[in-house]
Amino acid sequence: MKIYTRTGDKGQTSLIGGRVDKDSLRVEAYGTMDELNSFVGKAMTELNPEIFTDILEDLEAIQNELFDGGGDLANVMKERHYKLSEEPIEVLEQRIDLLMEEAPPLERFILPGGSPAAATLHIARTIARRAERQTVTLMKAEEEVPAIVQRYLNRLSDYLFVAARIANARVNVPDNEYVRSAKVFRTGKSESKSED
């Protein structure tokens, strides 16, 4: 089997049920999900499995869910059967709540960084936000886009924010606070969100 087909040499690519230009909104959205998946994979290589077994299990599931969501965005068939469901969103919410109990108190905005894994998870978080923005743009422009993908990406970015904080906390690396920030969060366990 050859890895190259030459079918994309004129700037188009295949979807599930059609072809579009490679710079279409749909390809941008699911391509960014692929980029996000790559950074999730990179973060996994930076997490010690003896300390982060639970996070690694989460990220492995997330990689499969991102593949499902990307496939759902690439589906333009008349009869569409989507793979991503509400269950992964519910699981992410449960995991966020559990990890928030472990996270150190947060009073100020934090800057991405700390341990290598935390820095990579913050990169993944920002890519998740970009994928979400692109999906919203696609939803405004196209006749049918599975809205669950946008909801999943919204929740995923929150999870990645919390996971990045845990990636620092468990190896005793403090979060890098934004020094010009006033105390914007309640004291005690963090109630912050990475965006919305």
Automatic annotation (TrEMBL):
Reactions listed under catalytic activity: 2 cob(II)alamin + reduced [electron-transfer flavoprotein] + 2 ATP = 2 adenosylcob(III)alamin + 2 triphosphate + oxidized [electron-transfer flavoprotein] + 3 H(+); 2 cob(II)yrinate a,c diamide + reduced [electron-transfer flavoprotein] + 2 ATP = 2 adenosylcob(III)yrinate a,c-diamide + 2 triphosphate + oxidized [electron-transfer flavoprotein] + 3 H(+)
Organism annotation: Sporosarcina limicola
Gene Ontology biological process: cobalamin biosynthetic process
Pfam family, one: Cob_adeno_trans
Family from the record: Belongs to the Cob(I)alamin adenosyltransferase family.
Descriptive protein name: Corrinoid adenosyltransferase
Keywords associated with the record: ATP-binding, Cobalamin biosynthesis, Nucleotide-binding, Transferase
Residue span(s) of domain Cobalamin adenosyltransferase-like: 3-166
Top-level EC class: transferase
Keyword set includes NADP: no
